[in-house]
Amino acid sequence: MAEHEGKKEESLMEKIAEKIHGDSSTSSDSEDEKPSELKAKIFRLFGREKPVHQVFGGGKSADVLLWRNKKISASTLGVATAIWILFELMEYHLLTLVCHGLIITLAVLFLWSNATTFIHKSPPRIPEVSIPEEPVLQFASVLRLEINRAVAVLREIASGRDLKKFLAVIAGFWVLSIIGTWCNFLTLFYIVFVLLHTAPVIYEKYEDKIDPLAEKATIEIKKQYVVFEEKVLSKIPRGTLKDKKH
């Protein structure tokens, strides 16, 4: 029995080592060919190969998230904070806000159009406001593509081909469901908004210190997953999914 358990522990340790170093083994063959490139290649969070600015698209949105333009970034975060305070802390309602805004707007426009009574001149012309069609169609098209992509990813995960990804998604939804019991959607949206405006810029500034810690955490997670797979998942009977034609 002791010998059997010893062999089992040795095989488990071998699997852990293979799991951790499996990704690096594919690049070991090319290490002799391009040593200078591989020396410069270090671990990056989420396996990124591009700068943080390019990961976020490299456009104006990336400039805002990474505080390239501090005035715009601060204004965006300030507006979001004001909206959260207005609706969450002061318990203001959206319909009330819209009605009050329309009342003020109509009153200002009415006085503006009747300004001839006060200034004895022709009243200024009220500007015409209309929503252009092209941006709305572009937004709808992009939204449709993203929804279709998300549905396709969920369908691929539900097919059961990648158990690791399936468990990760289930765990993510479970964590979100717990967070949803702590706060409402507006507060959750505001927290995500603040994180998007703080976490990327902090990571970009201290990425050389964060990446080594992330590498150690990734190795530890892989070890625990191999142990979990060996002791639990490997004992679960799973059949192959086959397409049935009716």
Automatic annotation (TrEMBL):
It is found in: Endoplasmic reticulum membrane. It holds the Pfam family Reticulon. One of its GO terms (biological process) is response to bacterium. The keyword Cytoplasm does not apply. The chain crosses the membrane at residues 93-112, 166-196. GO terms for cellular component: endoplasmic reticulum membrane. Keywords: Endoplasmic reticulum, Membrane, Transmembrane, Transmembrane helix. InterPro entries: Reticulon, Reticulon-like. It comes from the Eukaryota. It is a multi-pass membrane protein. Residues 61-246 form the Reticulon domain. The keyword Transmembrane helix applies. This is Reticulon-like protein.
